[in-house]
Specification:
The chain is about 75% helix and about 0% strand. With about 220 residues, the chain is mainly α. α1 packs antiparallel against α5 and α3 packs antiparallel against α5. The longest helix has about 80 residues. The model has no long low-confidence stretch (mean pLDDT about 90).
């Protein structure tokens, strides 16, 4: 102050403060950039793993749909055969086994479960995609599985035991027309056809959802 240099010292001090602030801002920006890059890498990593899971689901769903369609054809054939009095035996000895076929399906949820358990679901920026995943898994778990379990319970606990007591299931000895005289068999076939048709539609819906999720993943990875 005595030498009149106060102004210069103030300017110097302000300059130092400005430099420190700029340095802090640059450091924060660099840290934010590094975090963003790390998050993007993590997002792509999980998107690729989800892609593998959904690919597996589409494969299994496709198999279930084809399997159900084949069994529905067998049920149609069985329905016609038990109504034909001219037949002495079934066209295929094991056709009665088709009344006990079940088509359960469990989605591959390893990656999705891991994202939730580790709190890394927030890495996925596309909220619409995340919501679609929840709908996909919840529909399979709480709606489709109930129908599938119902079919399995009825087929294994009701149809199976009845047929085993009624005839030789591997090589039926009774004429097909004999089965038409028992209301149980007609009802069983009708029930199975209705429920399997609904299950097939459920699986088709899930299959379409799965394809849409795969398409969304591909688009997201391209954007990263």
């Amino acid at each position: 102050m005595e030498t009149g240099k106060t102004g210069k010292y103030l300017k110097y001090a302000l300059g130092e403060i400005v430099l420190v602030v700029i340095g802090i801002l640059i450091a924060v920006k660099i840290n934010t950039w590094n975090t963003d890059q790390s998050n993007k890498k993590g997002e792509v990593f999980y998107l690729k793993k989800l892609h593998l899971n959904f690919e597996q689901d589409t494969l299994y769903l496709s198999e279930r749909i084809k399997g159900i369609e084949n069994v529905l054809l067998s049920h149609d054939s069985l329905k016609h055969q038990i109504a034909d009095s001219s037949l002495k035996s079934f066209s295929k000895p094991k056709i009665l086994f088709t009344l006990m076929y079940t088509f359960g399906f469990s989605a591959e949820t390893a990656t999705f479960d891991n994202l939730i358990a580790t709190g890394k679901l927030e890495l996925l920026e596309n909220q619409t995609f995340v919501d679609s995943m929840f709908v996909y898994y919840n529909t399979l778990e709480h709606h489709t599985r109930r129908r599938s379990d119902g079919i399995e319970t009825y087929s294994r606990n009701t149809i199976g035991p009845y047929i085993f007591e009624f005839d030789d299931i591997k090589n039926p000895q009774l004429k097909p027309i004999t089965y038409s005289k028992v209301p149980f068999f007609k009802n069983a076939i009708t029930y199975r056809k209705d429920q399997l048709s609904e299950l097939k539609n459920n699986y088709k819906t899930s299959y379409t959802s799965c394809l849409n999720l795969l398409k969304s993943i591909d688009e997201q990875i391209k954007e990263r």
